[in-house]
Amino acid sequence: MKTAIFSDIHGNLPALEIVLQDIKKQNVGRIICLGDLVEGGDHNDKVVEIIRRNNYPTVIGNHDEINDCVLTAANQEWLSSLPETIIEKDVLFTHVSPRRKRKLIISNNIEAWNVFDEEEFRLCFIGHTHSPMIYGDKNNSFGEAKSYDVNGGVFCTQDNDRYIISFGAVGYPRRGGVYIRYGIFDDENNTVEFVKLTGFLLPYGSNR
C-alpha cells in the first residue's frame, strides 16, 4: 500500500490544499500527518478541521501541544488528544524523535545515530525538521549515521538497513527552501518518494 505522509502545516491552508489535491493523483491508500498542524499561518482552525474530519491518522507535534491558537472546542480537544507515535510492526511515525529524550534531528549524523542506537525500528518517519532528509544506520564511521543527499525523486530502502526519513514541511521551509513538500511511502516496493510542489509559502518565523 502507498501512504502519503506530510507534516508541519502550521496553519497554512493554501499549501495544505495544494498537497491534498496532488495526493489525489497519486493512487495512495491512505494519508498520515506527522504533526504541527497549527501556529504560523492564519487558518489554524480550518487546517485542524480538515485533518480531523477526514480521519487522517495523526501524531501530535510540539506546536499542537502548546500554542495560543483560537480553535473550536471540538478541534482543540481532538488536537490535544493526539498520540505521540503511530507504530506498525517495524515502522514508526512520530513528530520529533522516537527517543525518550527527544532532540532535533537535522544535519546531525550523531543524533541520528543515537536514535538507531536506542530504537529498533526499521523505518522512522518524522516531521519537525522542515527539510527533506534520510539517515541510514549502516555507515563506515562509528558513532555517526549515514546521511543521504535527497531533494526530490524516489529513494529505494534496503532490507538490511534502517532509516530515519523526513519529507520536509507543508507550511514553510527552514533555511530558505522554496517548495511545499510531502512524501509517499510504498511498503510493497520499499521506496520513499520526495514530492516538492510550488505554491503559497509562509516566510519562516511567521507568528511563531
CATH architecture: 4-Layer Sandwich
Strand neighbour order, sheet with most strands: 3-4-5-9-6-7
Superfamily (CATH H level) name = Metallo-dependent phosphatases
Order of H and E elements: EHEHHHEEHEEEEEEE
Through-space gap between termini: 36 Å
Strand content: 25-35%
Q: Which overall shape is indicated by the principal axes computed on the Cα atoms?
A: globular
Helix content: 10-25%
Which segments are poorly predicted (pLDDT under 50) over 5 or more consecutive residues?
none
CATH class: Alpha Beta
> Could you describe the largest sheet, including whether it forms a barrel?
6 strands, mixed
CATH topology, by name, is Purple Acid Phosphatase, chain A, domain 2
Number of domains: 1
What report would you give on this structure?
This protein has 208 residues and is α/β, with parallel strands linked by helices. The chain has a single domain (2-197), classed as Metallo-dependent phosphatases (Purple Acid Phosphatase, chain A, domain 2, 4-Layer Sandwich). The protein has 5 helices and 11 strands, in the order βαβαααββαβββββββ. The strands form 2 sheets. It has a 6-stranded mixed β-sheet with strand order 3-4-5-9-6-7, covered by helices on one side. Strands 2-1-10-11-8 form a 5-stranded mixed β-sheet. α2 crosses α4. The N and C termini lie far apart (36 Å).
